């Protein structure tokens, strides 16, 4: 016995009304692609400078980080990398939550928790980068190289 239900033509126009306003899913999709490309450049630049230039991994210590954070270029490089990576990761996790969590209230709670955590980490990381002071708390017992750096 044949069923009378028919499958709609896949090329037929979709008849559901389109929602008004911004298409956040489309902009999230575009952000993931653009931030992914930028992150590849930022991360490989970060790794190259930290691991290949100078003494390589053996040269990374407090003085190396203090020297990098003394430069506005590297401050902005690291902050851009931090912001893009955290928003990229939170958006990816949001997509996973939307795909696998079926209960609307739980999904909404998890997505809010993701964005709050990402926002907190962005705020904290940005404050660390821009307020980093290697000279804070220097005393006579401090190392000579650190005193010279702060002179």
From TrEMBL:
The keyword Metal-binding applies. InterPro entries: SQR/QFR_C/D (IPR034804), SuccDH_FuR_B_TM-su (IPR000701). The chain crosses the membrane at residues 30-53, 73-90, 110-132. It comes from the Bacteria. The keyword NADP does not apply. Pfam families: Sdh_cyt. Keywords: Heme, Iron, Membrane, Metal-binding, Transmembrane, Transmembrane helix. It is found in: Membrane. Its main location: membrane. This is Succinate dehydrogenase.
